[in-house]
């Protein structure tokens, strides 16, 4: 029995200015009998339509070609394809995505589908090996992204930028509501798995870079900034709140000219309450986008723990270092304490508060 007798899996190919490699890919797919159905290509505003006309002539109705009037980004192309599958193929179990540039092997797609049989509710991704044969920009980009995914979510994957994936249909329904439309959409797809309760399974695949990845439309600076924007937003939120906290603390200590244990605690309390409110609003609206009341209660609990820890640790280290009579040095100690608490706080907020 073939796979499609058990699972109906659609194949989605986003394409922007593709060349003949797209036709070669379709040829390879059609040579596999279990891949000869439910193929959708989304033309993301390509300038030259010759390739798509050839595909329509050669494959007819066996390949559906959808068109964007203008380039809207890979993420939007994927969402357009997802919506088409949901509207026209209501009984599919998942959607496989594969890039149009010939850098994914159909044999690897078969391996992913075999794993999807074992994990039908999981996001299956193809993980490449990034050795010295891989272009430098791809090695560096993937290394940085891997580390950020690990920091942001605790998820450990070898290849965060792979376009070869099989997405369970329940997750597809959620993905079409994601706000991102470019390459960061695939990054967000990984980040959101834990929140959505989706298992992530990585399957080793071949690493293929044709013509030094010349056909890739990934814009190194622009798309990298978009991918890492969530972490940058959190850093901005944290630094802004951090500055507010320290400035208020310094002003209170400086003008009151008292360095007692009780006043350090009170100065910490006042500065932390004000900066904490600012931090909560920025994280909720700018970083994580969570609107639930439950998040407020969780954040409040974390906030109180941080407040107590900051006040006690600042006081203890000030007395241990005999620097409790100088406004500047007390503020420096508070900076070091709060920096450590900031790093711990991010992990807790991402995993338990705004997840």
From TrEMBL:
Domain GtrA/DPMS transmembrane residue range list: 233-354
Lipid bilayer topology: Multi-pass membrane protein
Record's subcellular location: Membrane
InterPro entries tied to this protein: Glyco_trans_2-like (IPR001173), GtrA_DPMS_TM (IPR007267), Nucleotide-diphossugar_trans (IPR029044)
GO terms (BP aspect): polysaccharide biosynthetic process; protein N-linked glycosylation
Domain of life of the organism encoding this protein: Bacteria
Main localization, broad class: membrane
UniProt cross-references to Gene3D superfamilies, sorted A to Z: Spore Coat Polysaccharide Biosynthesis Protein SpsA, Chain A
Transmembrane segments: 234-257, 263-282, 302-320, 326-346
SUPFAM superfamilies: Nucleotide-diphospho-sugar transferases (SSF53448)
GO CC list: membrane
GO MF annotations in UniProt: transferase activity
Start and end residues of each Glycosyltransferase 2-like domain: 11-145
Swiss-Prot/TrEMBL keywords: Membrane, Transferase, Transmembrane, Transmembrane helix
Name recorded for this polypeptide: Putative glycosyl transferase
Organism field: Weissella thailandensis fsh4-2
């Amino acid at each position: 029995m073939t796979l499609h007798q058990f699972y109906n899996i659609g194949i989605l190919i986003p394409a922007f200015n593709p060349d003949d490699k797209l036709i070669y890919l379709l040829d390879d797919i059609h040579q596999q009998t279990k891949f000869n159905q439910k193929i959708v290509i989304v033309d993301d505003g390509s300038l030259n339509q010759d390739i798509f006309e050839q595909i329509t002539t050669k494959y007819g109705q066996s390949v559906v070609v959808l068109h964007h009037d203008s380039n809207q980004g890979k993420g939007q192309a994927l969402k357009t394809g997802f919506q088409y599958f949901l509207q026209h193929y209501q009984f599919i179990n998942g959607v496989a995505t594969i890039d149009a540039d010939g850098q994914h092997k159909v044999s690897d797609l078969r391996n992913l589908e075999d794993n999807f049989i074992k994990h039908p509710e999981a996001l299956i991704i193809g993980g490449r090996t990034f050795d010295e044969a891989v272009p430098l920009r791809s090695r560096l980009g993937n290394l940085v992204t891997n580390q950020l995914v690990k920091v942001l979510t605790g998820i450990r994957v070898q290849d965060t930028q792979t376009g070869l994936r099989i997405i369970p249909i329940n997750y597809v329904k959620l993905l079409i509501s994601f706000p991102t439309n470019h390459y960061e959409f695939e990054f967000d797809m990984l980040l959101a798995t834990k929140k959505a309760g989706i298992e992530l399974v990585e399957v080793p695949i071949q690493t293929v870079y044709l013509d030094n990845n010349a056909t890739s439309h990934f814009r190194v600076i622009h798309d990298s900034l978009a991918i890492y924007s969530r972490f940058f937003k959190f850093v901005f939120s944290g630094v802004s709140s951090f500055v507010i906290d320290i400035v208020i603390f310094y002003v209170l200590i400086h003008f009151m000219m008292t360095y007692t244990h009780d006043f350090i605690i009170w100065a910490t309390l006042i500065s932390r309450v004000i900066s904490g409110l600012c931090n909560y609003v920025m994280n909720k609206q700018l970083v994580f986008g969570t609107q639930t009341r439950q998040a407020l209660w969780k954040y409040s609990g974390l906030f109180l723990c941080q407040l107590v820890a900051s006040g006690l640790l600042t006081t203890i280290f000030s007395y241990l270092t005999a620097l409790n009579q100088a406004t500047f040095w007390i503020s420096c100690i508070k900076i070091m304490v709060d920096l450590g608490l900031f790093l711990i706080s991010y992990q807790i907020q991402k995993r338990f508060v705004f997840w």
